[in-house]
Amino acid sequence: MHEVSDPLDLFQRWFDQAREHGIELPESVALATATPEGRPSVRMVLLKSADRGGFTFFTNYESRKGVELEANPHAALCFHWKELDRQVRVTGSVERVSEEESRDYFVTRPEGSRLGAWASDQSRPLASRSELEARVAEVGKRFGSGEIPLPPFWGGYRIAPERIEFWQGRQDRLHDRIAFDRDGNGWRAVRLYP
């Protein structure tokens, strides 16, 4: 791994290489959140954008991750591209994206996903699969062939990175690790032992 000064540029380069390599869903990322008491929870989500503002994903605000992020607005991401023997870890503070940004993304989702967002009480107990299917059918009837609006309980979160670490696997477990810590408007890089 060559030396770089901007971790966001390096992330974009690695992400593009993962896509070019043909890795299925390179945007799949493990998202870790925690309760105010520090009890962790992790799950896979899909990254929808990464730019100077941060790393963005979308979810139901009333889901477990949404509730945890509202109570404790800090999170961590871990990308793992096994075929390239690479990982990227991101930690930072979290905030909701604007309603407009959430709406702009929501309308690009397939119709079934938009109906599902309305029908699902994400992370809450479900009596049966048929109950979920009935709710999707009811939502479909409610909106008919018209526009499916953005649910008020659904939208995006953006992680503003405070630390980004790049891990490149090497022979004999002598891996390359470089961490970037936010330093004012810039970044401070440090090489880490494997």
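[next item in queue]
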Amino acid sequence: MDGGQRVLAYSVVNQGLVNEEAAQNSLAEAIVRAGISREDISTIVTTGYGRDLVKFGNRSITEITCHAAGAHHLRPEIRTIVDVGGQDSKVIALDDRGRVATFRMNDKCAAGTGRFLEVMARALGVELADFGRIALQSQNPAPVSSFCAVFAESEVVSLAAKGYPKIDIIGGIHQAIARRLSSMVRAVGLREPVAMTGGVAKNEGAVRALEQALGVEIVLHPEPQIVGALGAALFALRSSAASNGAAVR
């Protein structure tokens, strides 16, 4: 991000375990895409689960705070954020200034996360990239009641053995995720507009199911995986400007 709050480049890499090497590779790729050098970067803020593993950062800030800042920057009117990543899901309520008012987090199990979808896709022999599209084709979603990835996998196998079409089982899986997420939203307090961030926001079936469960239209960023990183960049910009005696709104 430059001084005018314009995103110059971003990079998303998949290297399995979260570690500093993955962060280094992602940064290096973004630098090449931006057409700059490492020396041009004044401040780096890390966020997410691996933020404290990245030693080359100047400071670290929680993903809840960064997602709030990123979503507010993109759409200042956003009041509720549903962030669904690979390992956890969060619902964040924002005040009128884009600050975190309250939040609810599910980080104890894979229920309703990207990992949950990965397990279900593997159990059904379907590519994860096709999962959401297939879910949209279901006219009679199967009754999937389990939220636990382990129990849900057994339930899915049982539904298949009972003759439920694969399309309807996939539809039922997405409805189960939507029920889980909508209960978290209502626990925080539904305030519109609602934005969805994180990798699962790329799953059109999950987005549509959540819209139906909440009865609202969900706002999406073209690249929902980088909203937290965008918030981190905003904090880095403000920190850099402050050290130089400037002010960034």
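[queue empty]
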